[in-house]
Design a protein that fits this description.
Layout (H helix, E strand, L loop, with lengths): L5 H23 L9 H13 L1 H13 L6 H23 L10 H27 L5 H6 L4 H21 L6 H28 L4 H24 L7
Length: 235
């Protein structure tokens, strides 16, 4: 931090957090009919950001202690850790409240936590590279666009998980548990695939990689529409 001026640090904070907030505003429009309490949304967003701390610790443990240090195995373990802590952030701050009262809430809260997580990842990424003296625009365009990818990857992966969980909102406990496990597995698989695509892409290939992002983002929007139509069995 000593190498960064206050002005640069503020720019990094804005550059790291504002994109995630814009995406949050976009996804919250899917729940415009019965919006969630602002304080819970803010709390879930912050909890998602805080979740980067245990994620970092667990990822370092997996790499250094368990010896998972190469290729797809590393990305798979890291993706599982990140999807789990994001779910935990949403569970602890929102999904145990009275506001969690309709299927779509599962997607909204999980995606909110995911965007908080992405915001902190963005900030850490900017500060880390800024310490090396890189210019802001070079940071954004460098590293296979990993910075921009976080804002898309995290919410859509968590959105898929939330959608799968939402489909069992009115079902029994066992079915909801199975759906949660399946949702986290699916999100982990997507997260792993996307990370591998980003890391291995270069030049024009990055456009193909981001095309996959947008295809899955479109699927999340369709999943929102499906979840909105879910009704209790007794209605």
């Amino acid at each position: 931090m000593a190498n960064l001026s206050l002005g640069t640090l503020l720019i990094f904070i804005a550059g790291g957090i504002l994109p995630a907030i814009v995406w949050l505003w976009f996804w919250l429009k899917e729940d415009a009919t019965r919006p969630e309490p602002r304080r819970i949304i803010i709390g879930t967003f912050i909890a998602g950001g805080i979740a980067t701390i245990p994620a970092f610790i667990l990822e370092k443990y997996a790499r250094d202690i368990l010896g998972v240090s190469t290729g797809a195995s590393l990305f798979l373990v890291w993706a599982l850790i990140e999807e789990t802590v994001k779910y935990g952030a949403a569970l602890c701050t929102a999904e145990r409240t009275k506001s969690y009262d309709e299927p779509i809430d599962s997607m909204i809260y999980l995606m909110t936590a995911a965007l908080g997580f992405a915001a902190c990842e963005n900030l850490f990424f900017l500060v880390d590279h800024g310490m090396d003296g890189s210019a802001f625009h070079d940071i954004l365009l460098g590293g296979n666009l990993r910075f921009l990818g976080a804002n898309i990857l995290h919410p859509i992966a968590s959105g898929i998980a939330g959608g799968i969980i939402a489909l069992t909102f009115y079902r029994g406990t066992a079915e909801r548990v199975y759906a949660t496990i399946l949702g986290l597995i699916t999100a982990t698989a997507l997260h792993t695939i996307f990370n591998l695509l980003i890391i291995r892409s270069s030049g024009g290939e990055i456009l193909t990689t981001f095309a996959y992002f947008w295809i899955v983002a479109a699927l999340v929007i369709l999943l929102f529409e499906r979840v909105k139509r879910i009704r209790p069995y007794y209605v």
